[in-house]
Specification:
Layout lengths: L10 H16 L5 H4 L5 H4 L2 H20 L8 H24 L6 H8 L8 H22 L2 H19 L14 H12 L5 H34 L18 H13 L1 H5 L3 H15 L3 H6 L7 H25 L5 H11 L4 H18 L1 H20 L5 E3 L5 E3 H8 L1 H22 L2 H26 L14 H8 L1 H24 L8 H14 L12 H8 L9 H16 L14 H19 L10 E7 L12 E2 L8 H5 L5 E6 L7 H10 L12 H4 L17 E5 L8 H7 L4 E4 L20 H14 L4 E6 L20 E2 L6 H29 L5 E7 L20 E8 L1 H5 L12 E3 L3 H8 L6 H12 L2 E4 L7 E4 L5 E2 L6 H16 L16
Parallel strand pairs: 3-8, 3-10, 5-12, 6-7, 6-8
Antiparallel strand pairs: 1-2, 4-9, 5-11, 10-11, 13-14, 14-15
Amino acid sequence: MDTKKKNTLTVGQFFALLLATFIMLAQIYSFGGSLARFPLGSILKFIPTTAENATMIFVPMIFGAVYSKKKVHPAEAFRYWIMAVVTLVIFYLVYFFKSPSSFTMWKLWGVFFPVLTSTSVLLAGLIFSILAQPYIYELQRKLTTKQNVLLLGLLTLVGFATSAGTLNFKYSIFGLYFILYFAWGMFLVNTPLSQKAKIWSIISGIISFFVVIIGVAGFNGVYWYQLLSGRSGGGWNRNFLNNPTSPFLFLVVLAVFLIFIKLIKSFTVREMRYLIPVVVFMQAPISKNFMLSFRFTGSAGINELLMILFMMLASLALAVLYEKYLYQVRPIRRVLIDLSKQDNLAEVIQLAWKNFTNWIKQHHVKVLTWSWFYILSFLSFLIESDNLRIQITTATDINAVIFLLGTRFFAIILTTIFLDALFSIFYFITTRYWTSTILVSVITIGWAIANKVKLNLRGEPIYPSELSEATNFKTLAPMVGNQLLIVIGIALVIVIALDIYLEVKHPIKKKGSWKRRGIWALLSLLLFLTPLRFNHDGGIIYYINRGFDNKQSFRNPERDIQINGPVLNFLNYIDLQVMNKPENYSAATIQHLNEKYSKVAAEINKTRKNDLSKQTIVFNLSESFVDPYTIPTIKIDKSAPNPVKFIQSMESRATYGNMLSAGYGGGTANMEWETLTGLNMGMFKTTLTPYVQVVPKYKYYPTIGMDFGMKSAIHPFIGSYYSRVEDYKRFKFDKFAYVGSKYKIIDQKKLGKSTYNSDFTTYANGIKQINSEKGGQFINLISIQNHMPYNNWYPNNEYMGKISGELFNSSAVKEQIATYVKGVQYTDQAVKKFIGQIDKINKPITIVFYGDHYPSILSQSYTSKYPVQMHSTRYFIYSNKYAREHGAKAKLTNKTNYVNTSDFIALMLEQTNSKVTPYQALLTEVHEKLPAITINYEGDKGFELIDQKGNKVDPKTLTSDQQALLRDYEEVQYDMTAGQAYGLKAKGFYK
């Protein structure tokens, strides 16, 4: 099509394009809320949506008018597509560098396939319209003016009537509807209209405008009245009048079109191509976030105006560059030349298919190799599943094939990339295709099976730190089993024979010189260095890795390997960012701290008389336990009983207060790790789960349990979560009783419809263990009853309909909180029974009871408003009657209102009047002389300090002595999380 009739725009055309660009780009922002504040706001707030829908009618009509002069070749649709792709590539690159965390492969897919991924329904509609233009052109010339009006009018009415104005123009398929408006534009611009017809059309448009604006607001009011009055409000579409299918909205646009029809006629194809980047910017999924990410001034309105102007300039610059250079790029020019030789769409499709099949034939080895590596990657994922099921929550599993292909597609692709890189290295070394392919296949499947074997044996995958154990064949062989070893041996013999056969009978020589293969091998080696940056938060590699859906949670190793696959799972553990190394860290420094705190311990022990090893200590993690009355804005009707009456009564007869949790709605193992070790999550550089990422690095890990002859753990649930089975072995626990273990969980009782064992079960097993030992012991007692979800488990729940508050604004949340509160009441009753039982036992027993985190009922977004409150759970430390009679204190009062989980060891030692080790002396000093240490609740890395009133303390206000104490604590934590564990070799430091 000739686009060179004129090279300059008239003043009117120029300003019309500027105005159109401004209006289209302004629609990226949502101005409805701002307009609602003006007089008549209830009507004005719908104008932005109406304007956006009108634009989706008006733009195709303009394009139809401009492209109405003669038949348009399908190559023009390709021009639209390539302009959109290049625009999106530039747009997304800028956005990625501005906000790297925004990168996802799904977005990248949308960049290159904007129609398939519904990047812009208007763009899709214009492409569909251009492809349909030759057929519309012929049809309109065969029909009379009256027939054209009747046909287009009937289609407009039928489209509205059959959809009732409910079509959602967010998906490309609905772009087909815009062909109708494109056809209207083609017809109107070539049809002479009388002045009378124009005037009546404009009058109809004005009347329709008021019908739309007033009608939309009115029907919206009716809808909400029905909804709030309890009637059905969801059975009809209240926005049907301003839907792009609305005949009334079409009449409004028609009036505007006729007013400016002369100006529209004057535009050429060149100006329409200019609008393609504008259309892309207008509807690209990232546009709003991109434009809001820039802050030039303190005024949101000025920022928005400046960004619109900036995007207008960008659109103009792109249009000029495309016009001059884009179609001169060799591959694009070659495609356009090939397309121009075809007469119609059918021939274009035939040509595209022919070129595609030729490309497949030419590159069939590469295609088949990549296909095999993808299948291989997928198989490695499936091997880690449980009978082709993957557990996505504690209570729900799903078909592995559907889940992996539907949600982990790009994680499989990333695995495929690494397998291909490994192939490139092998191929460069061996120069043999089949040998390299089979090596990759054997390694991948073998690695997947090895991880599955370890999962079945120990509930965790293979960690990088364990590769050295592979040399210890005598130890590994019995674990693997002779039968499996024989199968592996036979399989290897078959594979070797297959390789020899294929290399001799069907040799394949991949194309490319040795230099090219060498370059690929070098790039592949560099690719294998990228996992060293996978966990470096804020880096480009970090964000690209996560963009491939490789998002390790480090909370549930079994689930992580199932959803990330054995290859990526292993790579994720290669370089864990735990803590920054302290400047003076060394074995000598740790020995110095041992000597320093030995003196502190000696001073403390002058006033302590009890031997901890002779006490019975129970650390009781109560799953998701929070005093309901401490939840922000909550109100429990006075007619409902106090669900935590007994636990609240502990305030007067036990050490009692608020525990600062390092999690919200999850992270149980982190709080458990803090209680057992005295170390603190706030000291870590990145978000991690020590049970999974830290503890496995050490053969032995010190906990409070090491001071006892007998130490055990009880959890009436699955034991494999957070690598507990294996980690408890590293803690040197003598026993771990869980559902399915060799130690039977007694009195398994579930309440109502809940799938979890009750707290009554937890404490029954606790009592059993307490009575099983005559002397002192340590018990780590973990409940499960109040774990999410909260699906109306309990019948006759007296809290249903009795809970209100500003944050409980939906029926679903109210039902969940009522279920949760009822569960908490059962916990209160179980605790009361347990305390009564231990009071009757004639040996010193102290229980440290704590809720690990808030239940995941309220949106986590509220934590920014209530950061400390929504991370504070209830705790108490109670010593039974016998313990109090033999030196234990009934209640501590100093610095007990706000404590961290890591403070429990120091608090327990003080309450039981027990002597301390140098390490425990350090913990005592940290508790007594520093504010409570916890994670940064604002989301930043590092720690936060909280005083006894729950207020944040600036670390800069710490005294020099406090800062020195904090550094000592950091040294010791680094030693046992990222360091060499020198403290274990320092005599007497931990035990």
